[in-house]
Amino acid sequence: MSSSAPYKITEKKCATCSYWGGERDIEFRNYKPFYIKASAGKFSCLVDKSRKPTSATYCLKWRLWEKIG
Hints:
mainly beta, 28% strand
């Protein structure tokens, strides 16, 4: 991953959404997911193909990426 930004797992941004098309990694704290580090840039949205959101974009169709732990 070249350039990335961290987002708390509870933030309702494209980086933490199950529809995010870009790369991301999870950072754990005390064995629980805490941050998602997502690639910078614009990526396709799996729900709305006409959108090219960034990791920090908000959307009304947001859905939590995964429940882990």
